Amino acid sequence: MSIKASFSNVVNVLRDWDDVHNGYHCSWRGVSCDNHIFSVVSLNLSNLNLGGEISPSIGDLRNLHSIDLKGNHLTGQIPDEIGNCGDLRTLDLSGNLLYGDIPFSISKLKQLEEV
């Protein structure tokens, strides 16, 4: 929920991201899970007109294979915590308004194939 809280323009777009009425996060829009390890492996929120920033909580999703946030209006910097997503293979942040340096922690993502 802290990831959702860092975004703006989510009222209609991410209305199913509601841990009170829909606690099964694997059914939320843009979230895919591995049913064997019961963990989020993909986050695809591309082209949803989201604003705000990328939450440092993204680093808590350590089993992510793919993050696709392209085509939004995200601002701020890429959080250093993204380096905690050690299984990350695909990262697409294009088409946003991000600024600043690419965090050094991205160098820890040894599986990263597509940026």
From TrEMBL:
The keyword Iron-sulfur does not apply. Signal peptide: none annotated. Keywords: Leucine-rich repeat, Membrane, Repeat, Signal, Transmembrane, Transmembrane helix. Residues 1-34 form the Leucine-rich repeat-containing N-terminal plant-type domain. The keyword Zinc does not apply. One of its GO terms (cellular component) is membrane. It is a single-pass membrane protein. It is found in: Membrane. This is Leucine-rich repeat-containing N-terminal plant-type domain-containing protein.
